[in-house]
Amino acid sequence: MQPRWLDDEERAAWLRLVGVVELLPGVLDTQLRHDSGLSHFEYFSLAMLSEAPDHTLRMGALAQRTNATLPRLSHVISRLESKGLVERSPSVEDRRATNARLTAAGWDTVVAAAPGHVDAVRQFVLDPLTREQLRELTVIGDALLARLDPEGRMFGHVIERPTD
Q: Which of 61, 79, 160, 164 gives 20 to 30 Å between its CA and that of 152?
């Protein structure tokens, strides 16, 4: 079967998306490390816990929401635990599962880091776009996530999916 090569318009769109996918994580990581001493993944993990009921999630659920493998997440949670930002405990519902809970210090850390992170998101993603482009980005994100995450594992708890 012959490959379906990209035409000029498709290639232009693809290269721009690759540029954003490659450059944005480093920009966000640099800002958070500079301002808060956290990696972007550490901040994102803390943020997901901060939004959960009782600031607690099973490690499996947190892995889904952060798109991490359990070994990677466990390593990061161990690091956050050593800083007193998170604590782990057996799940009350299922003793085989482990919960991660944001501590008071973790809450203070994520609250202190959030304004700088939001400023970076605005500076590098939202502010360069018009309101119409922002709406288009939402539609584009929905279309891509429908293929990449059809079950809504990562953001299904906060993103309302469009229905056809």
A: 79
